[in-house]
Amino acid sequence: MPADEPTGLRERKRLATRQAIQRAVLRLALERGLEHVTIEDVSREADISPRTFFNYFVSKEAAIAGDAPDFLDDEQLAVFVEGGPSGDLMGDLGDLMADAADHASESRETVMLRRDLHSRYPQLFALRMAGMRAFEDDLAGVISKRLLHDRPEYAREPEKLASRARLVTMVAFGALRHAWTCWAETDRSSEEALSTRLRDSFLQVRELLMQSSPA
Amino acid sequence: MPADEPTGLRERKRLATRQAIQRAVLRLALERGLEHVTIEDVSREADISPRTFFNYFVSKEAAIAGDAPDFLDDEQLAVFVEGGPSGDLMGDLGDLMADAADHASESRETVMLRRDLHSRYPQLFALRMAGMRAFEDDLAGVISKRLLHDRPEYAREPEKLASRARLVTMVAFGALRHAWTCWAETDRSSEEALSTRLRDSFLQVRELLMQSSPA
DNA sequence: AAAAATAATTGCAGACTATGCAACAATTGG
DNA sequence: CCAATTGTTGCATAGTCTGCAATTATTTTT
User: CA(B17)–C1'(C4) in Å?
Assistant: First the structure.
């Protein structure tokens, strides 16, 4: 279906403006410090009017936080829901997240700028996480289907299923945060991909509780 | 004559004002909706000047989010660090959090108002979580000591220990979020304590990965 | 108990954030 | 090329937040 990219001029311009704003605010914040950047500065840098800024983001913080990752194609999602690829829940979730990170629609520059900014202002990272509620809800839906596939008896207890799906989602977000935090700390010259870190963190979660019960 | 009241008048007044502001903003936000409450309204309700509001909280959101839970007494912490009380990491963390919830310094009224507000505005809950970074760092420190006690060989790999401690912390925060979310959804008339939910969520995390590996 | 030191409250000025509205400009589809 | 749709902008206005200096309240010292 998505063969080429026949998006209209309008849509392309909108995307370009959105990215220009994000680059602008990230660059300026890194350059002169978060508190010394105003919407007016950002707008000048991105070549738009201050009013237009608010057509794209509700606040400076939202522009810095950026968008939640895109979800994957339906096919990959279907594989996950039906117990694949490996059958291990945490491992498969790690794969899912890693692939999402690799196919991010954001430019590499934006991702790197944001990583540096998060290192300097850890609150921003927490804020980015806070902005991912919708993504989290989507994820919970997918996980719910997967759990139902793994243990069909959940069909008789829909509330328990929902609760469990949320628990898995929140634990997965813990792994996500861990991966991002580790990645943000790696040497700037290191070429280690975020996706590698993601897979690793999810596998560590898997190990974690196996080890935790003492003799 | 001097009943041991270690806190001076000044400190008590400050605490009272802080709590008055929180009650005011929560009540007003529940009553007329978040977006129809201004700092001026809150200040009037709490009997302070708008300027004073900002001596206590940096923003309206911060007042709503409230403070991170207090940590427990050193003795209880020492037990945890040395492998107690049960020896199971997640279970012990659940106990720790549950006790912290039971001994919260906040008034029951404030806790309930916040719960209701979070039900109506889930973003606020995410924001509250985002504001707990310092608490999270403290927790990571405690967990690091516990891990070192459980597996002294970590002493040879301090970086691995730190990374693992952070992972456990973030997974624990997932459990925390789950417990709070479930608790906020329970019937208002239910007397189920948050601490019960906390213990339950942590134990579920423990079970989770045991079950997750298929045949 | 008064005086000095310390800390909290307040008003005010000023910069910045954010939204509604209406005019204008650009893109799209016929 | 025209008409509909969508995006941009300026303006007005309400609200957020900070620095500063004056005032008031508590604590400490003598």
Answer: 27
B68 touches chain A (CB under 8 A): no
Contact B46, B39 (CB under 8 A): no
Residue-averaged pLDDT of chain A = 91
DSSP H or E segment with residue A132: none
Q: Kindly report, residue by residue over B102-147, the tens digit of the pLDDT.
A: 888 888 899 999 999 999 999 999 999 999 999 999 999 999 999 9
Residue of B205, B207, B210, B211 to mutate, interface with A, max A Cβ within 10 Å: B205
| CA distances for B42 relative to A129, A155, B26, B49, B123, angstroms | 28, 47, 9, 9, 20
Residue A84 φ then ψ, to 5°: -105, 180
> pLDDT, tens digit, for every residue of B157-166?
999 999 999 9
In sequence order, which ranges of B8-132 are alpha helices (DSSP H)?
9-32, 39-46, 50-56, 60-65, 74-81, 89-102, 108-120, 122-130
Question: For residue B107, what is the enclosing H or E element?
Answer: none
CA distance B213 to A203: 12
pLDDT of residue B72: 79
